[in-house]
Structures are given as structure tokens and as C-alpha cells.
Specification:
With 233 residues, the chain is α+β, with helices and mostly antiparallel strands. The chain has helices at residues 23-34, 56-62, 79-92, 154-164; strands at 12-14, 17-18, 40-45, 95-104, 106-111, 131-137, 168-172, 177-183, 187-194, 205-213. The protein is globular and about 45 Å long.
Length: 233
């Protein structure tokens, strides 16, 4: 479990290069990863690590981010420091799954520092990814639906986001709920479950399931659309 909010941008790892975790926590994380002997490395993370790429046109419409990424306050605002972590994951060939919150929407992402460089990341096969990240929806906090975006417009926004981000396997911006992660020796399976917002209920609907297999370092392209194929008990 890491804390990016406490030291974010307060220290530098090199002259003029801000650290997202702070030097002591960064050293601790890399030391633990370098000495890891388990099959899977699970990193609890507060805010999105993988790039959520934007564009100048989208920025003019949303006024979010800087025209390159949607949020410079998370790891997207510290690309050089993040790349140091990615380089370690690639060097050590670690099976890494980053578990993220705060964004209030659903994301399934392959981690790469060069998502639009076809020579370093293949959007079809995901070759070049160094690990995977899953970001979960909120249960009661607002997302795009409560923010006033017309329901019929949200699928278009999701498509735009996916087109801008070839390393994103899937996204969902209007539903509330949670995700689970099943960890097995040869694979990890993440599942999204959706519930009504701010209402006490036992009702829940299975969304999707995604799997990352050992030593592949990316989410498998095939996903589960039925809970009968799911690992959820």
C-alpha cells in the first residue's frame, strides 16, 4: 500500500524532477519490489497511475487536465518519476497489479509509459506493457452521470476516451459499485459489480471480468460478460 497524497510533489528525486511518493517511500517501494519472491505483486494505490490521455480538443470542451492528460494531480503529472517505477517492473519482470480508487469510474488498463509509440507498445497484442492497473467505481460518490452529463452522451465520451488511450482495455463512466480481484498462481481475475447509488439493497449486477495471466504483463483481450464464467462465488 502506497500513499501518494502525503508527499506528492514535495521532494525531488533529481534536480528539478519532482517525486510523487517522496524519496523515503519511493526507496521502500522499490526495495520491496526488488526483493519480492511471490508470484504476484499487488500495489494498493490512491490515484490513477496509468496515463489517461486527453487532447487539446477535449481540453477545450472539458477544461480538465492540461490538454495532454485528464489529471495532472495523479501519477499522470509525474511521468518521469513514474517511468522509473515502470523501468523497475520491466527489469525485474514482476507480475504487477495496481489497485486504484478515487476516480469514481471503472477502468481496466495496461501500464506503459509509451502508449502511442507503436514500436514500444502494440495496442493489439499489448506487447510492451509492464503490468496492469484496475480502477474501481464509487459506491456513493458522484461520477459522470450525477455530474450532469446526458445519459445518451456518456457512451460517446467512453468511446472517445478509449480511442485516445490504446492501452485502456475498457472503461465505464456512469455505473456505481466495486471490483473484486481473485488471485491464483497462474492468473488474476478482476470483476466489476454494480449497485444502485445511495440505496440500501442486496441487488447487484455483474459488469465484466478481465484476466491477466502470469508472465504476460497485460490484461487478456478476452473478457467475461457472464458471471457464470466468473470466479465470483
Amino acid at each position: 500500500m502506497i500513499d501518494m497524497q502525503l508527499f506528492r510533489g514535495k521532494e525531488t528525486f533529481a534536480e528539478g524532477k519532482q517525486s510523487v511518493l517522496g524519496n523515503a517511500q519511493d526507496f521502500w517501494l522499490k526495495e520491496k519490489l526488488s526483493g519480492a519472491t511471490s508470484t504476484w505483486q499487488l500495489i494498493g494505490n490512491q490515484e490513477m497511475m496509468t496515463d489517461w490521455l486527453s487532447s487539446k480538443t477535449v481540453y477545450k470542451l472539458t477544461k480538465r487536465g492540461n490538454g495532454k492528460v485528464f489529471d495532472t494531480g495523479n501519477w499522470n503529472g509525474f511521468p518521469e518519476d513514474r517511468q522509473r517505477l515502470y523501468d523497475l517492473l520491466a527489469e525485474k519482470k514482476l507480475n504487477t497489479v495496481v489497485l486504484t480508487g478515487d476516480v469514481h469510474m471503472s477502468f481496466v488498463m495496461n501500464m506503459t509509459g509509451t502508449p502511442k509509440d507503436n514500436k514500444r507498445y502494440n495496442k493489439r497484442t499489448a506487447t510492451g506493457a509492464v503490468g496492469v492497473e484496475i480502477a474501481g467505481p464509487s459506491i456513493s460518490r458522484v461520477n459522470m452521470k450525477e455530474a450532469g452529463v446526458p445519459a445518451g452522451f456518456i457512451p460517446l465520451v467512453q468511446n472517445i476516451s478509449r480511442n485516445l488511450n490504446p492501452h485502456h482495455r475498457w472503461c465505464q463512466f456512469s455505473k456505481h459499485g466495486y471490483f473484486t480481484l481473485s488471485v491464483e498462481p497462474e492468473k488474476c481475475t478482476a470483476e466489476f459489480w454494480y449497485v444502485p447509488i445511495a440505496r440500501v439493497t442486496d441487488a447487484e449486477v455483474f459488469g465484466r471480468g478481465y484476466t491477466v495471466f502470469k508472465d504476460t504483463y497485460h490484461w487478456d483481450k478476452k473478457f467475461n460478460t457472464s458471471k457464470k464464467l466468473s470466479t465470483y462465488p
